[in-house]
Design a protein that fits this description.
The protein has one domain (6-148): Nucleoside diphosphate kinase-like domain (Alpha-Beta Plaits, 2-Layer Sandwich). It has a four-stranded antiparallel beta sheet. The radius of gyration is 15 Å and the shape is globular. It is built from seven helices and four strands. It has 150 residues and is of the alpha+beta class. 31% of the residues are buried. The termini are far apart. The model has no long low-confidence stretch (mean pLDDT 95). Bound molecules: ribavirin triphosphate (RTP).
Length: 150
């Protein structure tokens, strides 16, 4: 656990299509996490197969890749104390039917195959996913109180 821990959070195509981008970003911002990277990406099946390499062989894998390639996703990196674990708690259980109310999936989703968002499940995987989705690197910045926006 560290204040500079980073996690990869992705709003899936159904979350983008349903207009939940602002709501999901708002939850991470108001919780206190720092947004350090963000972009809209229409990923290729090949790229998504790398992201979900651990799931290759599962019966739902082809459908998962098709769903994830069906439209753009919002790729983000959030930084802050215990970002990986807390991010997963904020997303809720993978199957929305088991997600607690108050979590993103528990408030906005019903089906495991359309569960709106992704969050890294370990610090090690977060760093791998950040490299996969942001190969160009991430600009580090600090809030400078002296030039705060008026
Ligand atoms: P994610 O990677 O998207 O955050 O999800 P997760 O770690 O909570 O769950 P994981 O087991 O890695 O599954 C990845 C995504 O695959 C879809 N899925 N469909 N039985 C099914 O039809 C099924 N199981 C999983 C979900 O979209 C899940 O988020």
């Amino acid at each position: 656990m560290s204040v500079s821990e980073r996690t990869y959070i992705m709003i899936k195509p159904d979350g983008v299509q349903r207009g939940l981008v602002g709501e999901i970003i708002k939850r991470f911002e108001t919780r206190g996490f720092k947004l350090i990277a963000l972009k809209l990406v229409h990923a290729t099946p090949e790229h998504l197969e790398k992201h979900y390499a651990d799931l290759k062989g599962k019966g739902f894998f082809p459908g998962l890749i098709k769903y994830m390639a069906s439209g753009p996703v919002v790729a983000m990196v959030w930084q802050g104390l215990d970002a990986v674990k807390t991010g997963r708690v904020m997303l809720g259980a993978t199957n929305p039917l088991a997600s607690s109310p108050g979590t993103i999936r528990g408030d906005y989703a019903l089906s495991v195959g359309r569960n709106i968002c992704h969050g890294s499940d370990s610090v090690e995987n977060a760093e791998k996913e950040i490299s996969l989705w942001f190969p160009e690197g991430i600009v580090q910045y600090t809030h400078n109180q002296a030039i705060w926006v008026f």
